């Protein structure tokens, strides 16, 4: 959801998300484009999330995750972030811009029924449910400037700012950008506001439509940031009856300015819709760049 401050200033949403399901394997990602370069940063968030989806839903990647160790899982996660960064660099080149104008945070979850792996660069929020306990993890520790964060494009980000963790027994998780931090966490400690997550996962398990959650996000008042709000929720459940175990289901936010999402369900194969991340710069991108310069 586009934040109230962005709407007030006539700006678009700089957040992006993606998720994919391949049998019992799940990948999810959220990203938050830097507010200091609003508009152009939305392309960094979009390309990073869509690239994560394309790379993680490759059948060979899924097989390596399912059969590997926890160390293997963390290396696979690191490879996703490295490739996402490469894709954002290609996008910046295609748009004729410095890559820092596409600066974005990135938060990713991978899971099957045995292991969940999480990673992030920046100030996103990761919450998990394990043995009916709800907790946040991989919280970014701020320095003296509370409104600063690391980005995927930051110098040595993959070495100094990438945080990863593996967990067994995860029955639900949520990935969120920081626009809801004052509502769903204790901002001083980073601890989860448990009623929010418990209720959200209960709605998900009961089959509630995504539009209900979207409306709830849009109706949140006094969030103290006015920032964009993006969340992906996942909860362990049963495979749908009649659905082949290796059928892919996936979705991702649309490109900046499009106002639409993309998704689908296909047999186990490459996701044709995603293609390469880099695309010719649309006319709107130059408009955003001009507005940022002013």
TrEMBL record:
One of the Pfam families matching this protein, by short name: PP2C_2
Sequence ranges assigned to domain PPM-type phosphatase in this UniProt record: 2-215
Coiled-coil spans in chain: none
Annotated region (Disordered), positions in chain: 245-270
InterPro entries in UniProt: PPM-type-like_dom_sf, PPM-type_phosphatase-like_dom
Protein name stated in the entry: PPM-type phosphatase domain-containing protein
Organism annotation: Mycolicibacter sinensis (strain JDM601)
């Amino acid at each position: 959801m586009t934040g109230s401050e962005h709407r007030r200033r006539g700006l678009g949403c700089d957040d992006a998300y993606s998720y994919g399901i391949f049998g019992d394997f799940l990948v999810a990602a959220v990203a938050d484009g830097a507010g200091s370069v609003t508009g152009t940063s939305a392309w960094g968030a979009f390309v990073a999330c869509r690239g994560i989806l394309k790379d993680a839903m490759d059948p060979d990647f899924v097989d390596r995750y399912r059969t590997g160790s926890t160390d293997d899982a963390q290396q696979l996660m690191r490879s996703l972030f490295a490739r996402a960064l490469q894709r954002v660099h290609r996008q910046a080149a295609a748009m004729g811009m410095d890559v820092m104008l596409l600066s974005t945070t990135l938060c990713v979850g991978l899971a099957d029924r045995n292991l969940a792996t999480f990673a992030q660069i920046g100030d996103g929020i990761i919450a998990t449910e394990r043995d009916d306990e709800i907790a946040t993890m991989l919280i970014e520790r701020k320095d003296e400037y509370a409104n600063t964060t690391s980005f995927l494009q930051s110098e040595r980000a993959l070495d100094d700012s990438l945080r990863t963790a593996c967990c067994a027994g995860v029955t639900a998780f949520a990935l969120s950008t920081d626009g809801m931090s004052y509502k769903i966490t204790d901002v001083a400690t980073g601890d989860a506001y448990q009623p929010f997550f418990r209720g959200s996962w209960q709605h998900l398990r009961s089959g509630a439509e995504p539009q209900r959650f979207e409306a709830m996000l849009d109706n949140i008042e006094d969030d103290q940031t006015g920032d964009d709000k993006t969340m992906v929720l996942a909860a362990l459940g049963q495979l749908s009856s009649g659905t082949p175990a290796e059928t892919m289901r996936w979705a991702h936010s649309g490109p900046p300015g499009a106002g639409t999402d993309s998704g689908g369900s296909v047999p186990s194969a490459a996701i044709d819709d995603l293609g390469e991340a880099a695309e010719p710069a649309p006319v709107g991108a130059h408009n955003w760049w001009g507005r940022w310069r002013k």
